[in-house]
């Protein structure tokens, strides 16, 4: 599906509504009131679709000063974010280039979210590890301030080492799964020699104990997967520092499409792709290659300012004007 309209008409708002209605949160903001139209006190999203062989109906209600309320097939959900486990949706927006050119924390967060989408049983692991590191940091500061003994620190050191070992293992497994798919898709899009590299050593109790004095001095845990990075390369160059804007964009797209392949293979259902302003900085040949790739990747919604931006005829065309979206005949 191609969604077209002039800048500021509301194309991104339509895409955002689909993301909120299927995932329970916005890819743009974590402040729910930002989702409500200016001057209004409330808003709602209603979606109808299919997931595999079954129907899917979602209703989301938003009101200023209140938590979001969502229902799935008529049944109320305790939290809107539960929708994440019901429908696989992947999104590209221009600010996603930060995955490549941003700080390591951005890449860690991105890949950790993929873990939850691929292996739902491991979805809580990044949160549990972060909580353990937070508890150990608090214990370090208590010990340094003379408010606690070092023996009280030991259980948190063990906990961080155990969960950290699991985090490193699952991240490496994910990178191993994504690496060949990412390289193949990137090559198809004209980004040759693309590679993913996990940069981080195993975490052990001995490693944490060896730097205990430094950790006490700083009040933070100075080793572990919360400090690791995931390198994104092409042609032997790290794209964060040595990639052009176009190469960085292609790398993000290749990552997204590689994940879509992996989800489809693992879960048997192709994810919905939401691609906002994805074509604007690609040359004609790469637009053609991308269009051919997403045509076989499942359902996709692509926004652009004109029909001519997409070099193939879309299955459906939606024209957006301020306050209105209409399917073209």
CATH architecture designation of the largest domain: Up-down Bundle
Number of helices: 10
The amount of beta strand, in percent, is 15-25%
The CATH H-level superfamily of the largest domain is: RecF/RecN/SMC, N-terminal domain
Global structural class: alpha/beta
Strand order of the largest sheet: 6-10-11-1-12-13
Roughly what percent helix?
Answer: 40-55%
How many domains make up the coordinates? 2
> How far apart lie the N and C ends?
13 Å
Shape: globular
Give the topology.
Elements: E1 2-4, H1 11-23, E2 42-51, E3 54-63, E4 69-72, E5 75-76, E6 89-92, H2 98-101, H3 104-118, H4 125-144, H5 154-188, E7 194-199, H6 205-210, H7 212-218, E8 229-234, E9 237-238, H8 239-242, H9 245-267, E10 272-275, H10 284-295, E11 300-304, E12 317-321, E13 324-327
Parallel strand pairs: 1-11, 1-12, 6-10, 10-11
Antiparallel strand pairs: 2-3, 3-4, 4-5, 7-8, 8-9, 12-13
Helix pairs in contact: 4-5, 4-7, 5-9
Commentary on this structure:
This protein folds into two domains: 1-88 and 269-329, Rossmann fold (3-Layer(aba) Sandwich); 99-260, Up-down Bundle (Glutathione S-transferase Yfyf (Class Pi), Chain A, domain 2). It has 329 residues and is of the alpha/beta class. The strands form three sheets. A six-stranded mixed sheet has the order 6-10-11-1-12-13, with helices on both faces. The chain is built from ten helices and 13 strands. 33% of the residues are buried.
């Amino acid at each position: 599906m191609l969604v077209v309209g002039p800048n500021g008409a509301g194309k991104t708002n339509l895409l955002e509504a689909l993301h909120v209605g299927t995932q329970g949160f916005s890819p743009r903001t974590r402040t729910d009131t930002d989702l409500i139209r200016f001057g209004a006190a409330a808003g709602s999203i209603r979606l109808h679709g299919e997931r595999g062989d079954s129907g899917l109906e979602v209703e989301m209600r938003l009101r200023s000063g209140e938590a979001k309320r969502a229902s799935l097939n008529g049944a109320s959900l305790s939290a809107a974010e539960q929708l994440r486990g019901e429908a696989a949706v992947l999104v590209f927006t221009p600010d996603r280039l930060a995955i490549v050119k941003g700080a390591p924390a951005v890449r860690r967060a991105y890949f950790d979210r993929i873990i939850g989408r691929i292996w739902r049983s491991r979805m809580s692991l990044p949160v549990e590890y972060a909580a353990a590191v937070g508890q150990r940091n608090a214990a370090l500061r208590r010990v340094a301030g003379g408010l606690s003994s070092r023996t009280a620190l030991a259980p948190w050191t063990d906990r961080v080492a155990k969960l950290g070992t699991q985090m490193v293992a699952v991240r490496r497994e994910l990178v191993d799964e994504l690496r060949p798919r990412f390289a193949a898709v990137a090559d198809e899009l004209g980004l040759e020699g693309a590679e993913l590299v996990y940069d981080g050593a195993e975490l052990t109790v001995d490693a944490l104990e060896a730097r205990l004095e430094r950790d006490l001095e700083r009040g933070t845990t100075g080793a572990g997967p919360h400090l690791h990075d995931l390198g994104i390369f092409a042609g032997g160059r790290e794209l964060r520092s040595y990639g052009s804007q176009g190469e960085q964009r292609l790398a993000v797209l290749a990552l997204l499409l590689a994940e879509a392949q992996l989800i489809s293979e693992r879960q048997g259902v192709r994810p919905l792709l939401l691609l906002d302003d994805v074509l604007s900085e690609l040359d004609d040949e790469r637009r053609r290659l991308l269009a051919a790739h997403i045509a076989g990747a499942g359902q996709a919604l692509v926004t652009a300012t004109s029909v001519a931006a997409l070099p193939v005829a879309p299955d459906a065309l939606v024209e957006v004007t301020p306050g209105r979206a209409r399917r073209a005949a």
